[in-house]
Amino acid sequence: MAKKAKAKTAKTAAKSKKAKTVAKTATKAAKKTKITRREYTKEDIKELRAHSKARTPVAQIAKMTKRTVGSLRQKALKLGIGLGHQR
């Protein structure tokens, strides 16, 4: 009877180890890369103004410039130009 109990606990321990390993792997994959800040150049500002006049969607501008939507909106706000619903 003691052998059966030991075998069951060994199986349970092996399953919990697998679960922990899977959880660790999932956590590693979910980690984000560190964001590095890039300053806006004069060319970036010209491009942003042109997109504002052309009424290009903010999501599309973000993909083209490789910047976040929030970053673009903040810069546009500081420059006094409209993006998105503010136009």
Essential attributes:
rod-shaped; single chain; mainly alpha; 87 residues
Summed over residues and divided by their number, the pLDDT gives a mean of 81
Structural class: mainly alpha
Radius of gyration: 26 Å
How many E strands?
Answer: 0
* Percentage of residues in DSSP E strands: under 5%
Biggest sheet character: none
Amino- and carboxy-terminal Cα gap: 77 Å
The low-confidence parts are none
H/E element sequence: HHHH
User: Helical percent range?
Assistant: over 70%
Helix run count: 4
Please state the overall shape, judged from the principal axes of the Cα atoms.
rod-shaped
Region (Disordered): 1-35
Biased composition (Basic residues): 1-21
